[in-house]
Amino acid sequence: MKVSAFTFIRNVVKLGFPAVESIRSVLPMVDEFVVNIGQSDDGTMELVKSLNEPKIKILDTRWNDRMLVKGFVYGQQKTIAHFNCTGDWAFYLEADEIVHENELDNIYDSMERHLGNPKVEALVFDYYHFYGNHATYLDSPAWYRRAPRVIRNSIRAFAPGGLYWIVLDTNKKGRYPRAALANAHIYHYGWVRSEEQMRAKAESVSKFWDGKAPADVNYGNIDPMILKEFKGTHPKIMEGWLPGEPTPFAPNPDHKISSRERRHRLQLKIEKALGIDTCKKHYRLVAG
Question: What tens digit of pLDDT does each residue of 72-105 get?
Fold first, then answer.
């Protein structure tokens, strides 16, 4: 069994992404890691080259800055990286996503177990969305709790907006992939970066989404009911990136709950009462 990993990045240094940590977190279990690097002005290319890792395959690309519709440029760049993978499975990681070293064997075992079952097209991961600091994570229907990150590399699949995969059964019909559980987590640290870095990221992204003005970034303005204390361990590879040992994040006590947040509170009550997950799912679970 051959395993590929892939990502696409641009200006990860000035935007504060733990891109190197992300890549290194899965290198022990993959045969190749395809890194699609868009033209950057902050040393991103040099940073990845400095790893001097033979498993890394670098693609030097230029983004289509005229493609400003619904984030499709992200789908283009993700697909370019994906289509350069040569493994049986392709493992996609975004530059702020890390895999815990204690779960690498679980992921590999899941790939091996389902390799001969064509009904399983993807592997789904549970998520920790850290927020404000790495002592706090989010639990809300607004933040996907599970997402596919490994895709079988012998099916017709692409990512139109870079966010999820569409599998094509015919040229005119697409669907979400059929999936099994990876029995592992993705540690998502995007919202642990400084508010200044998140504002810069939001500005760089917004122009590719119909030019909409980015929403103001203020970590404190959030429903306190969805904040949970993280009591587990972080990946060792993040020790040099994460600061100290913080206390759980304290939101703005004067924040007024929005109608959207009230709707999510209601969803949480329904989830608790019925034992279900109401998050949007970009996959169909067919195996454990």
Answer: 999 999 999 999 999 999 999 999 999 999 999 9
Non-local CB neighbours of 63 within 8 Å, separated by 6+ positions: 10, 38, 39, 73, 76, 77
Tokens encoding 224 = 């306190």
8 Å CB contact between 286 and 120: yes
CA quadruple 267, 272, 277, 279: dihedral sign: positive
What pLDDT, on the 0 to 100 scale, is given for residue 205? 87
Lowest-confidence range among 110-114, 160-164, 190-194, 251-255? 160-164
In 266-288, which positions are buried (b, 16+ CB within 10 angstroms) versus exposed (e)? ebbeebeeeeeeebebbbeeeee
In DSSP notation, 135-204 reads: EEEE-STTS-SEEEEEEETTS-EE-SSSSS-EEEEETTEEEPPEEEEEEEEEEEEEETS-HHHHHHHHHH
Backbone angles phi, psi at 36, to 5 degrees: -90, 110
pLDDT in tens, 36-77: 999 999 999 999 999 999 999 999 999 998 988 888 999 999
pLDDT for res 209: 83
Burial per residue of 210-232, b for 16 or more beta-carbon CB atoms within 10 angstroms, e otherwise: eeeebeebebeebbeebbbebee
Q: Are strands 157-158 and 166-170 parallel, antiparallel or unpaired?
A: antiparallel
Residue 104 CA to residue 213 CA, distance in Å, equals 39
Structure-token pair, residue 75: 């789908």
Cα atoms in the Cβ-side hemisphere of radius 13 Å centred on 135: 8
Cβ pair 6, 85 in contact under 8 A: yes
Query: What band does 161 get if pLDDT is binned at 50, 70 and 90?
Result: confident
Does the predicted TM-score (pTM) go above 0.85?
yes
Buried b (16+ CB within 10 A) or exposed e, 31-54: ebbbbbbbebeeebbebbeeeeee
